[in-house]
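Aim 2, interim progress: modelling of the NDP-bound target.
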Amino acid sequence: MAESPLAGRHALITGGGTGIGAAAAAQLSAAGARLSLLGRRMEPLQAVAESYGGKPIQCDVTDNARINAAFDEARAVNGPIDLLVVNAGIAESAPFHKMTRESWDRIIGTNLTAAFECSRAAIGDLLKSDNGRLVFVASVASIRGVPYASHYAASKHGLLGLMRSLAAEYAKSNMTVNAVCPGYVDTPMTDQSVARVSEITGRSEGDARSAITNMNASGRLVDPQAIGNVIAMLCLPLSQDINGAAITIDGGTSA
Ligand code: NDP
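Predicted structure of the complex, ligand included:
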């Protein structure tokens, strides 16, 4: 691989302060990209920016007006957006018969509608770039149902529909559109899932973590850097013919 294959490219990452987003920041920065890091909390964004460079920008992706202003702030510092990583997401759990409309709206709003809005805010730039890349952080919940998380699975299934449609619609352009579909990853979101399972079932946090870890066929949590690595790979110029792919990174769970 060339030393800095993404030198001069602007990568905007939503949810760039923690977990998979921070790992994507590390890998894209190593490949030479200039970073814009978006999220609601400034502290983690600033910490990632201190480690890997980049512009931290406060942005709640469920606020449409804020998305447009934040993307403009990013452009003012780093120029037009070449690489967009739509990663911000949330998870909740509830049995379907107890699921509230508020929870459904929160999950769909953050994981799917915001993905639509962020994609729309960047699509003009991505299509003008000679190496436009749109990468969605989906999930294994994009390809199978998840008990007690039907809203989350619906939002992540929707993300693949959006990804595949955009890949097909713009197949003749220089932009590619792909998704990564992780199994359980060692991030704050999984820590929160462990805490939720422990609280609901009364099991210890250790037992709850083992139960979640064992849902990956490998029996271990996926390293977030492994996801960041595939995201960065999808952004390389040499990946121009990977378009419309949903890449599972789940230790063999969906094999
Ligand atoms: P984290 O909780 O660490 O990351 C989620 C990120 O999204 C945070 O940085 C958070 O920052 C940001 N975010 C959440 N809501 C908003 C919002 N409204 N506006 C802006 N930013 C927001 O967990 P992960 O790294 O694991 O999650 C990243 C993605 O990976 C998610 O889409 C998740 O669904 C997906 N995923 C995770 C898996 C796992 O096992 N952990 C498995 C499969 C997919 P802040 O709170 O500061 O806004």
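Residues 101-128 form the longest helix (28 residues). The radius of gyration is 17 Å.
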